[in-house]
Amino acid sequence: MKMVDLFTIALSSFILISPAYVANSVPVILKGKKPIDQGKMFVDGRRIFGDGKTIEGFISGLFFGTLLGAAFGYPIHAFLLSLGALVGDLIGAFIKRRLGMPRGHPAPILDQLDFILGALAFVSIIYPVTLEQFLFLVLVTPPIHLIANFVAYLLKLKSHPW
């Protein structure tokens, strides 16, 4: 593969996924108070999502992710990417609660990819994500996610560096 092709794949992938990255990170900064699950338990006796998934975080992530995509000129794509990222993150939290993992407990791979897989699944309804874009994002997102979480920890936005 030529260097120009790799650059094109990387650039198109980052432009495509940027609303999802924003949607996933804004809730960490704005910290909501009202849990989406309203403190309710699932049939297994554990919280559905936990206190870390809030209504304010979901709405702000959706808003700012969509706003960024609108600035790039594709508001519908951005809305689906943002919504998919947030739903994917909720699914990840749901899985972690079923496994008995407390809030903030690391779940390697799941923590880094749940929102990306959700975003790509939702946007693929109207946009044909290429295999190259998919593979690129699945490979680069985990280290980006880990670095972003470490920076958020240093800035005291998160209580754990993962």
Description:
The protein is an all-alpha fold and 162 residues long. It has one domain. The chain is 67% helix and 0% strand. It has helices at 3-30, 55-72, 75-98, 110-123, 131-154. The radius of gyration is 16 Å and the shape is globular. The chain starts with a helix and ends in an 8-residue tail after the last helix. The mean pLDDT is 95.
Q: How many β-strands, per DSSP?
A: 0
Poorly predicted runs are: none
| Proportion of strand residues | under 5%
Report the sheet with the most strands, covering strand number, pairing sense and barrel closure: none
Count the helices. How many?
5
Radius of gyration: 16 Å
Q: Please write the string of helix (H) and strand (E) elements.
A: HHHHH
How would you classify the helix and strand content by structural class? mainly alpha
Distance N terminus to C terminus?
Answer: 33 Å
Helix content: 55-70%
Mean pLDDT over the residues: 95
Number of domains: 1
Anisotropy-based shape: globular
Describe this protein with a few key phrases.
162 residues, mainly alpha, 67% helix, 0% strand
Summarize the structure.
By secondary structure, the protein is mainly alpha-helical. It has five helices and no strands.
What are the SSEs and their pairings?
Blueprint: H1 3-30, H2 55-72, H3 75-98, H4 110-123, H5 131-154
